[in-house]
Amino acid sequence: MQVAQKVAVVTGGGGGIGSALAERLAAEGAKVVVTDLDGTGLGTIVRRIDAEHPGAALAVQADASDDAQIASVIDAAEQAFGPVDLYFANAGVAAGDQLEPDDAVWDLALDVNVRAHIRAARRLVPGWIERGEGYFVSTASAAGLLTQIGSAPYSVTKHAAVGFAEWLSVTYGDKGVRVSCLCPMGVNTKLLTDDAALSATAARAVTTAGSVLEPAEVAECVLAAMEAEQFLILPHPEVLEMYRHKGADYDRWIRGMRRYQATLLAQPS
């Protein structure tokens, strides 16, 4: 898959991985609709893209988890550039801590991290099958392959995001629908650095497990994987080894994660 001349939608594009993806796509010759709830960040990114690649990007402020707003974003893309070829379900939240007693927080995590992907796919996949081509890129997390110490909602919803991406690829891969699932560990974004997102313990679990990458490095990995039509995108290669250990001896892996959690909890806040 080459992205030049393609029409892309990037959710959560007002900063972090989403903005890096939008900039890289435009640099590679794609037309990009960038969407986010954060209108200020969104405007900054699109102005930056437009300065380098005039007419390559369109900003649409929207909630990536709302079905009607997803439809509006896709309509805006079609009116501005043509049918959507590439959809980056990148918006995500690190909502909730531990078992999280508030159902509203669980609903938020499920809506943004999982249902947003489902709702977008329902809108796009039928047309992609008819045209014989389309690409869905799901931003999940290494937590979706392993786990997230400290946050049940984040871990559970990222596992679900991986599962949905797998299902899409298995079900529609022979009908022209490409699927990739991005599963990074630490990335230098608000999700990792904002105290209101992950708890201190959860954030330490990420930052001490491996290097913290810049969003541009992750975007580079994504486009390389898309060119190869590779399903699993692992900007941190060590995640694959961790995943292999998990699969090889699940009980041993769980014991090791308990020990890791204990060392994190023993550290001062």
Automatic annotation (TrEMBL):
List, alphabetically, the InterPro entries matched: NAD(P)-bd_dom_sf (IPR036291), Sc_DH/Rdtase_CS (IPR020904), SDR_fam (IPR002347)
- Keywords for this protein: Oxidoreductase
Molecular function as annotated in GO? oxidoreductase activity
Q: Which family does it belong to?
A: Belongs to the short-chain dehydrogenases/reductases (SDR) family.
Protein name in UniProt? NADP-dependent 3-hydroxy acid dehydrogenase YdfG
